[in-house]
TrEMBL record:
<protein>
    <submittedName>
        <fullName>Fibronectin type-III domain-containing protein</fullName>
    </submittedName>
</protein>
<dbReference type="InterPro" id="IPR013783">
    <property type="entry name" value="Ig-like_fold"/>
</dbReference>
<feature type="domain" description="Fibronectin type-III">
    <location>
        <begin position="14"/>
        <end position="100"/>
    </location>
</feature>
<dbReference type="Pfam" id="PF00041">
    <property type="entry name" value="fn3"/>
</dbReference>
<dbReference type="InterPro" id="IPR036116">
    <property type="entry name" value="FN3_sf"/>
</dbReference>
<dbReference type="InterPro" id="IPR003961">
    <property type="entry name" value="FN3_dom"/>
</dbReference>
Length: 100
């Protein structure tokens, strides 16, 4: 029980239900839900795909992002995680592999 209480206070889970839907040969619609367990100092989502990293303020994000300018027929790993005020802390990532 002590480990659970510590985790719920200090930890942050990965986002839930990460999905990517092909819109065209060069774009994807990425959606996800907030994690159940979120540290009170979580400040932003980090979305990574290929060599690109996008940031979204945690409280302002609506759960959908369109990725444009992708290479047709290429495989991408899409990762989403939360980050705290401290830039050295990254929560576990939800990840999926997609192909345009």
């Amino acid at each position: 029980m002590q480990v659970f209480l510590r985790f719920s206070f200090l930890g942050t889970d990965k986002p839930k239900n990460l999905k990517a839907e092909t819109i065209s040969a060069t774009s994807l619609k990425v959606t996800w839900d907030a994690p159940w367990n979120v540290h009170p100092h979580s400040k932003r989502y980090l979305l990574e795909f290929g060599e690109v990293r996008k940031e979204f303020h945690y409280n302002a994000f609506n759960g959908t992002y369109t990725i444009d300018g992708l290479t047709p027929g290429r495989k991408y790993k899409v990762l989403v995680r939360l980050s705290l005020q401290n830039p050295n802390y990254l929560a576990p990532a939800a990840e999926i592999d997609v192909e345009t």
